[in-house]
Amino acid sequence: MTIDGQGVQTVATAAQCPVGADVDRAGAPLSPFHRVGPGPVRPAEASENPDGAADWMVTRYRDVVAALADPRLSSGKVEVSGCPRARADEAATYGASEATVNKIMSKIMVVKDPPEHTRLRKLVVREFSAKRIDAFRPRVQQIADELLDTIAERDEVDIMKTFAFPLPVRTISELLGVPDEIAQRLLPPEDERDAARGIPLDTLHAAAHDWVEVRRKAPIDDLVSHLVVAHDDGELSYEELVAMPFLLILGGFISTTQLIGGGLVTLLDHPEQLAQVRRDPTLASAMVDEVLRYA
Ligand code: HEM
Q1: CA 242, CA 103: separation in Å to the nearest integer?
Q2: What does pTM read for this prediction?
Q3: Which of 78, 81, 132, 287 has its CA 20 to 30 A from that of 153?
Q4: Cα 179 from Cα 192, distance rounded (Å)
Q5: Hey, what domains does the chain have and what are their CATH numbers?
Q6: Is cis: bond before 115, omega within 30 of 0?
Q7: Of 8-17, 90-99, 169-178, 189-198, which range is least confident?
Q8: Mutate which of 68, 105, 108, 110 for ligand 1 pocket (most atoms within 8 A of beta carbon)
């Protein structure tokens, strides 16, 4: 099958990318399966999931636009619990019991299509207005400076434990108003941090649950208290209520942690690019975009 601006043109065979990105940058045909690895990617690549089925990664702009607009593709079909091996792998890798995977991962809005996705997203979207995020910028800078001050004098440093992980966790915790006692559980002392996993999902699940219960007993003017009201009004189930802060904290740190780590490795691997950004710090924002595409 190929999809371009004109829509679907031919019918898929099992071995082809569902959105039809079937040639590489040089125009050479892609073999059906390429393991996705680090570094530059082709327009479409497949990796095998534990079921033996292929997951496709689509990277070319027009293919991504086509995929996002294609009603045959669904976020709702990403049912982690539907695949026993994926469930076991997921649990082991991310520190999640099967209960967490089943109860929470299938309730987060990332794995929903409209109208459920629309219903859930509407409940939190105002927390992330451009104005609010922009107003928070100086505080993020302050947290970053504080973290850098603590490592400036060291000869050797684990950047994941000391910066890439704590920066987004502290930022998202403050932005969302996670109670202090719960926020501390998300960010243990440096030597107890698991740099690879970040926050084990069971820990995050328990934290989200406790945060909901704290606000149920004593509501304030914050995200979770608003969600508790929405739950009482029948707008979302209890599991969805717990899944929302779980997702927002998870989404709030994991991509950024990986971006910082991957970005740093990428720059160290490309010293000429690093030197260019050092010479001209106004390139930093474009550098982040490039690293997001590349790393
Ligand atoms: C480097 C930074 C980030 C990157 C590259 C990134 C990337 C993405 C991508 C690609 C998706 C779509 C996932 C999908 O539909 O399958 C997504 C969704 C999401 N991200 Fe991020 N993200 C980043 C930072 C954040 C931050 C700071 C938050 C803070 C809460 C966040 C929260 C979310 C949420 C809640 C969703 C689900 C949105 C929805 O389903 O409507 N992300 N992110």
Answers
A1: 9
A2: 0.84
A3: 287
A4: 21
A5: 2-73 (no CATH), 126-294 (1.10.630.10)
A6: yes
A7: 8-17
A8: 110
